[in-house]
Design a protein that fits this description.
This protein has 63 residues and is mainly α. It contains three helices and no strands.
């Protein structure tokens, strides 16, 4: 079960950093004057790290 979640997280990361999705954020500005692409990259990276941390926590053995 845990391996399936890690594979799903990998696929989510691959989708989040795919060129077609990045092209959506290539123009414009986000809050605080940060370019939208840079803002998106950092937020997507932080979300993936947070999800990985949640998956990596020790839990009772799942059947």
């Amino acid at each position: 079960m845990r391996g399936d979640r890690l594979i799903a997280l990998f696929l989510l990361g691959a989708l989040a950093f795919s060129p077609p999705l990045l092209a959506i954020f290539a123009g414009g500005a986000a809050p605080l004057g940060i370019p939208a692409l840079i803002f998106y990259l950092y937020m997507a990276w932080a979300a993936l790290v947070g999800l990985l941390a949640l998956l990596g926590r020790d839990r009772p053995h799942e059947e």
